[in-house]
Amino acid sequence: MRKRWLFLLLYTTACLAQLPGIDGKWIGTLDAGPQKLRLVFRFTTTLNGLTATMASIDQSARELPATSATLYGAT
Description:
This protein is α+β, with helices and mostly antiparallel strands. Helices cover 21% and strands 45% of the residues. The protein contains one helix and four strands. The chain has one helix spanning 2-17, and strands at residues 24-32, 35-46, 49-56, 61-65. Strands 1-2-3-4 form a four-stranded antiparallel sheet, with no helix packed on it.
């Protein structure tokens, strides 16, 4: 039984290591009608899942935490 759990843990770790990485800073521009806002998203993969923060450079809003983050379309 112990070997089975160890195998499952190692297999899961190996699968997660092959996922495409999203970690890091992602910068873009939100076109809000006459105004354009520069946004920075920071994604971090942890043992508990994906976390994210957002900053609006033009509005001086720094590191606002997201309530949830989900990666779709990972192959």
